Each structure stands twice: as C-alpha cells, then as structure tokens.
Amino acid sequence: MANGHRILQQEDTVLNVSEARASLRELVDKVIHEKAHITLNRYGQPAAVLVPVEDAELLEMLEDRSDLAEVRKVLKNPKPVSWDKAKRKLGL
After folding, report:
1. pLDDT tens digits for the chain (92 residues)?
2. Strands 45-50 and 38-42, how do they pair?
3. Residue ranges of domains in the chain, CATH in brackets
C-alpha cells in the first residue's frame, strides 16, 4: 500500500467476462473485503477492472489534479487561437 492505497499487484485476479458474469457477487465481495483488483478480459485483452470505490475515487482525484495543473499551465502562458482554428479543433 502507498499512502493508504493499494498498488496493483501481479497476483491480482484476471478473468474473462463470461467467467466474471457467473460469479459477479463473489467478485464484488472480494473487491470490497480484500481490496482486490479484478481484471476482466474480453477477447483475450484487458477490457475493465473491478476496483474498490476508494481506489476509483483516488483515480478521479488524481485526474482532477492533473487537469487543474494543465489549466494553470495554460493560464500562465495563454496563446491566442483564431476563432477558425478553435472551431476546427472542436470539430465545429
């Protein structure tokens, strides 16, 4: 654990989606009680991960901080963009 949060481990559970569907209740219990991360594969490739709510909230917080840092960086050195270029970038 780092700062009270678990770091993804090699021994985490990996299942294909159909296996997970058959035992979803047990998998959710494992995530809640053991703080497990469970990777769900689709067509042999990782597609999703079941994680404790606390871990998902931490990820959201880190993303928010990253976004805020980017906004602050842009606000320090604003670069004017033409209206036409802005519309093109936004697909308008």
Report:
1. 445 555 555 457 899 999 999 999 999 999 999 999 999 999 999 999 999 999 999 988 888 888 888 888 877 877 888 899 888 988 98
2. antiparallel
3. 13-90 (3.40.1620.10)
